[in-house]
Amino acid sequence: MKSKYIKLIHIAKSQLNLDDDTYRHLLLNITKKTSTKDMTVWELEKILNNFKSKGFKVKSSKKTGKITATEPVHKKIRSLWLALADAGEIKNRSEKAINSYVKRITGVEVMDWLTKKQARVVIESLKSWQARI
User: Fold this and answer.
1) Quick one: CA torsion of 119, 5, 63, 106, rounded to 10 degrees?
2) CA 82 to chain centre
3) What is d(CA 121, CA 15) in angstroms, rounded to the nearest whole number?
4) Which residues of 46-72 are buried (b: 16+ CB within 10 A; e: fewer)?
5) Cα distance between residue 55 and residue 41, in whole Å
6) Cα separation of 73 and 111, whole Å?
7) I need a surface site. Which of 5, 39, 67, 86 has the fewest CB within 10 A?
8) What is the model's pLDDT at position 70?
9) Of 45, 47, 69, which is closest to residue 58 (Cα–Cα)?
10) CB count, 10 Å around CB of 103?
C-alpha cells in the first residue's frame, strides 16, 4: 500500500512542478523526514492531502474502470455520509472517517481510488443504512 502512496506523491510533485529542494523542504516541514521511503502510511497520507490542498487532482486512466476524484459518485457518497451524520447515525463527518468506511466495505484505502462498481457498492450500503433509520 505504501508504494501506491509514494507513486501518487511523486506524480503530484511533477504535476505541481516542484523542484527537488522545495519538495524535500515540504516533506521535512510536514513529517520531519526528507524521504517518502522512511515514512509511515499515515505520514504519506498527510503529504498527499497537502498536495491535494495545493491543487493536485487524483486521476486515472479510463481503461482501468477507475473514476476520478471529481466524479459525481464521490459527491453522492459524501452527501449520503453527511445525511447520516445529520440524522445522528455518524459522529465523525471527516474525509478520514468516510475513507475508513470505504475501506471496511471495499478494502480500498481511499474513496478516490474506487472503481465504478466499488463506488456503487458503497452507495448502496449507505442507502441501506439510511433506510434502517
Assistant:
1) -30
2) 17
3) 31
4) ebbebbbeeebebeeeeeeebbeeeee
5) 21
6) 10
7) 86
8) 54
9) 69
10) 13
Q: What is the pLDDT of residues 43-93, one digit of tens each?
A: 999 998 998 888 888 765 444 444 445 578 888 998 999 999 999 999 998
What pTM was estimated for this model as a whole?
0.50
3-state secondary structure of 7: helix
- Cα–Cα distances in Å, from 65 out to 59, 110, 115? 12, 16, 6
Q: Could you tell me the CA-to-CA distances from 128 to 20, 69, 85, 103 in Å, in that order?
A: 48, 24, 15, 17
Judged against a pLDDT cut of 80, whether residue 115 lies above it is answered with yes
